[in-house]
Amino acid sequence: MKKHLFEDRRDYIRQTFAHEPKSQQAIRAAMASPEDQINVPSEDGRLLQLLVRLVGAKKIVEIGTLGGYSSLWMAQAMPKGGQIYTCEYEDRRAKIADKHFKKYAKGKKITIVQGNAHETLPKLSKKGPFDLIFIDADKISYAKYLDWAEKNLRRGGLIVGDNTFLFDAIWQEHPVDRVRQEALFAMRDFNRRLSNPKKYQSMLLNTGQGMTVAMKL
Question: Cα(40)–Cα(135) distance, rounded to whole angstroms?
Fold first, then answer.
């Protein structure tokens, strides 16, 4: 029987390109409850790092902190003097993220903006324009988050949306069991708008859950 060096394609990618640092391992361990196990995988974290470096992102907004896993990936790639504003609704998750930022992100400027993002994002506008805006929060609101992002992103900056396959519902006529019709419509609108070649150079990347990356022209 032929012995395989790796379990599958993803395992090969992770072991070759996306080793998970101890800091990210600690966050994943702290977010052990089922409702919290929705971090981006390590290969997506490494991709975020690459995108941060490619555009030299110094001012980043993240919508959806969770435990700070993806924030830390991006912070580790930021140039000196960079700043991340990461928005989190739940107090419990914000406290977990803050604990890990203090331990593993020394010297990096990460500000947790707690509250409903629909209320906190307008207050962040005065700190823009931003170089990269990463959206990984409630799917129903993706189109509304995009409204804000389009106004507050610099030319040449990136809008990045995670889970844009919407659990494989995005191309189906009817949503799968775990996806609400409203979320499906919002995500289709999000991808449709970012696919506009007059406004963006963009692509939906075939990651595990789909990641849409768009550069503002």
Answer: 12
